[in-house]
Design goal:
Layout lengths: L2 E3 L5 E3 L2 H12 L7 H8 L7 E2 H14 L8 H18 L7 H10 L6 H5 L2 H10 L10 H11 L13 H12 L8 H13 L3 E2 L2 H6 L10 E5 L4 H15 L4 E5 L9 E2 L4 E2 L4 H11 L12 E6 L5 H4 L17 E6 L1 H8 L3 E4 L8 H7 L1 H13 L6 E4 H15 L2 E5 H6 L37 E9 L9 H18 L5 H10 L2 E6 L1 H7 L9 H29 L36 H11 L14 H5 L13 E6 L2 E6 L3 H4 L13 H11 L8 E5 L11 H13 L4 E7 L8 H6 L17
Parallel strand pairs: 1-3, 5-6, 6-9, 9-10, 10-13, 14-15, 18-19
Antiparallel strand pairs: 1-2, 4-14, 5-14, 7-8, 11-12, 13-19, 16-17
């Protein structure tokens, strides 16, 4: 008789009927699947001492291997098998515990925040338990359950032991966020928020999913830190980076003010070593922590295109050169404005300066475009200043070449970011973006780590699943919940650095994005590359409602809880909304229409202010989109069944409503040009107070000799700027790099993990 080793150490005779029962449970009421196929595929080799966990994992892998375009629903079989395994591990049986029992156990063992026990009464825990719909776990896909148990469920990351199931995770996030609401109303908010996140109307980012309900209390996804041109500020910036990287945040560093190499210091006593050694210093800080085992640290440094060292800075990421003249383990954001584009279009030159040599130039670059032009042109005429002149076409081409070759040289149009941003640039200028290039918040350099005058900006993220919204009016409920949940999070979390706490209290910034956009397009018979005026008009209508209800929710919250002290540094505080400050060049693409009560909302904003200085940001979406069985953010899918390599193996995800809509999806590498996609992003940007992680993607097969012309890339760059684009994120090329060869991987005994520096704090 074959003996099975149970989780608790007991031995039990193998029960084949029990195995059949588990597989039949996993396949029940799912069309196009067969229990016998799963069992046959598993080909379990039973032996004395086989563990129950080994049997479960073999069945899970068998179901996952059966996921194909012909049989996509095995993704739900795989999900249920993982659910079964999770319940056995967490509850020592299939039936879930009462939530209070789970909370007590995980609090006693130190994995849950002890405040959970004290904030709610036993009667309230009974009510909360009644809210939970454990059956929702049975509707999660294989990839969703794999990502949940790999990254998000509360666990011992050393031993791998897991202490909760998905619905417990969702309900406790809701309970944690609303624990300080009035007792009379908080349970209703807990229920509504739980339903919204467990049904994936709202998607949450990595720090929130993995951290809320635990003793860890830093959940802001994005951290923006600016350095000044001084050793004290540089060292304070590096120390702040270490603090936040260790707490799962992605970092954006404003590093453009550091003077150029050769600048005299200490009245000529020495020459400055330049900007690159300090970028190496920041890189060491970024890579010093592994972020609690969830992901490696990552950062993007931003600098202006007119910096004297720009030619050396542009190549820091590439694989040429030596370690001494490269800083490869960070990404870079190059900053442009109207004057730089003018020089390109007119065939002019760009003059490079060290920021320290032209007082006020760096500050004006962000705060006042007229003043910048005046100072810049005056400096060009000054024959005594150290400078270098480069043809604009040459510099732009060098930027695009590095962007194309590395994929990770980003762009920020600082005038668009400030003029179409949430803040008044003369009072609170935006001088950088974040790691993933969607956040636009003001910063001030630190003199030291405890400097109360410095400003570290944090942004806390979530996203709304457009695929679950039936009409624009339906945004009202979900936007209200998204804003309340994130606003409560700002009060719930801790702030390891004073400058971050003071800034958050002053501004209370949020970033609500979009997931499942490609599915939404497919449902409405729209495509990226062939988008027409009618299609853009529909996107405009939905984006307007989404934006309006987010702003309205925050304005209503300001009436209830008050506006923060920085309210009058925002355009909102003066009754100005994003659809008033967009680039009017966009009107040639889509006529301006106001369908919502914007006039009434603007009057409300003038009267009560706004609770949150920013509300929108379209971030990348990867892992959490997989959990929601959604397409990736606003991006087109690369295939109908995507295969991703993760630390937990090969994961297959099927696009939503595969059978009905498979011919409606517009796949990334089928697109001959990114123009349609960029036009859609411009329409969305019209209603967004922050930015969008906009990617540009090219398939070489659509170009002569399979080479993407520089003129084409620059044309798209100019179009993006003209339509109001703020930041560009990845440059994707369909050249096979980074793509997964499924057949090859499946045939190999050992799968090599790909080192991934992506920021999963932003990839919600």
């Amino acid at each position: 008789m074959i003996q099975v080793n149970k989780r608790d150490g007991r031995k039990e005779t193998l029960n084949i009927e029990k195995l059949h029962k588990v597989v039949f449970y996993a396949c029940e009421d799912i069309t196009g699947v067969s229990p016998s196929e799963v069992e046959l595929k598993s080909q379990i080799q039973f032996y004395n001492g086989v563990t129950s966990k080994e049997i479960q994992e073999t069945l899970i892998k068998a179901a996952a291997d059966l996921i194909t375009e012909e049989t996509p629903n095995y993704q739900y079989v795989g999900g249920r098998l993982i659910n079964y395994a999770l319940r056995k591990e967490v509850y020592d049986g299939f039936e879930p515990w009462h939530i209070k029992k789970l909370v007590d156990r995980n609090t006693d063992s130190g994995f849950y925040d002890p405040e959970l026990v004290t904030k709610y009464s036993d009667e309230e825990w009974d009510k909360i338990d009644s809210f939970i719909r454990h059956e929702r776990d049975e509707n999660l896909t294989y990839v969703a359950m794999e990502q949940l148990r790999g990254k998000y469920l509360c666990q011992n990351r050393v031993s791998g032991e897991i202490f909760e199931t998905p619905q417990m995770c969702y309900i406790l996030i809701a309970a944690s966020l609303f624990q300080d609401y009035p007792v009379s109303s908080r349970l209703q908010w807990v229920k509504e928020y739980y339903d919204a996140i467990s049904l994936h109307d709202i998607s949450l980012p990595t720090p929130v999913m993995a951290g809320v309900r635990t003793p860890q209390r830093q959940f802001s996804s994005c951290v923006l830190i600016e350095t000044d041109d001084s050793l004290d500020s540089i060292n304070a910036t590096a120390a702040a980076v270490v603090k936040y990287v260790s707490q799962k945040a992605g970092i954006g560093i404003g590093g453009g003010s550091i003077r150029a190499i050769g600048s005299p210091i200490r009245k000529g006593d020495a020459y400055h070593t330049g900007i690159i050694p300090f970028y190496k210093h920041f890189q060491s800080a970024v890579k010093s922590c592994s972020q609690g085992g969830v992901r490696g640290g990552a950062a993007t440094i931003y600098y202006p295109v007119w910096h004297l060292e720009v030619e050396d800075m542009l190549v820091l990421k590439n694989n040429k050169g030596t370690e001494e003249n490269r800083v490869r383990h960070m990404d870079y954001g190059v900053q442009f404005n109207k004057l730089m584009y003018e020089r390109l279009v007119t065939g002019g030159d760009i003059t490079l300066f060290s920021p320290a040599d032209v007082p006020g130039l760096y500050e004006a670059f962000f705060a006042d475009q007229d003043k910048f032009r005046e100072l810049y042109e005056r400096a060009e005429r000054n024959t005594k200043l150290r400078k270098k002149t480069v043809a604009a076409s040459e510099l732009f081409s060098a930027f695009m070449e590095e962007r194309k070759n590395t994929g990770r040289i980003y762009l920020q149009n600082v005038d668009n970011a400030n003029e179409h941003g949430s803040f008044l640039p003369e009072l609170a200028p935006i001088r950088q973006s974040n790691l993933c290039a969607e956040i636009d918040l003001p910063t001030k350099p630190l003199k030291d780590l405890n400097d109360p005058e410095g400003e570290i900006s944090l942004c806390t993220l979530s996203a709304i699943n457009w695929g679950n919204i039936k009409t624009p009016a339906d945004f009202e409920r979900v936007c209200r919940l998204a804003v309340r949940g994130l606003d409560a999070l700002l009060s719930y979390q801790n702030y390891p650095i004073l400058a971050a706490r003071l800034s958050t209290e002053k501004r209370r910034p949020l970033g609500v994005g979009i997931i499942n956009f490609a599915y939404w397009l497919a449902k409405h018979d729209l495509t990226y590359q062939n988008i027409d005026a009618d299609g853009l008009a529909l996107i405009d209508e939905w984006a307007e409602a989404w934006s309006y209800y987010l702003i309205k929710a925050s304005a209503d919250l300001a009436t209830e809880l008050g506006a923060p002290s920085g309210n009058m540094e925002t355009k909102y505080g003066h009754g100005i909304t994003p659809n008033q400050t967009y680039k009017k060049d966009l009107d040639a693409l889509i006529p301006h229409v106001e369908r919502q009560d914007w006039a009434g909302l603007r009057e409300q904003l003038k009267a009560t202010g706004i609770r949150n200085s920013t509300l929108m940001a379209l971030m990348p979406s990867e892992t959490s989109a997989q959990i929601a069985n959604a397409t990736n953010g606003i991006e087109p899918p690369r295939s109908l069944i995507s295969v991703k390599q993760s630390k937990h193996g090969v994961l297959k995800q099927v696009v939503p409503e595969f059978k009905r809509l498979k011919n409606k999806y517009d796949l990334l590498w089928d697109q001959q040009s990114p123009e349609g996609y960029l036009k859609i992003m411009a329409v969305l940007q019209k209603y967004i107070d922050q930015g969008i992680s906009v990617n540009t993607s090219y398939n070489p097969i659509f170009f002569e000799d399979e080479k993407i012309p520089m003129s084409t890339m620059l044309q798209h760059l100019l179009m993006f700027y003209k339509l109001g684009g703020k930041q560009l994120y990845y440059f994707n090329t369909n050249d096979g790099q980074g793509e997964v060869d499924v057949n090859k991987m499946m045939g190999e005994l050992e799968v090599v993990e790909v080192d991934d520096d992506d920021c999963e704090s932003c990839t919600i």
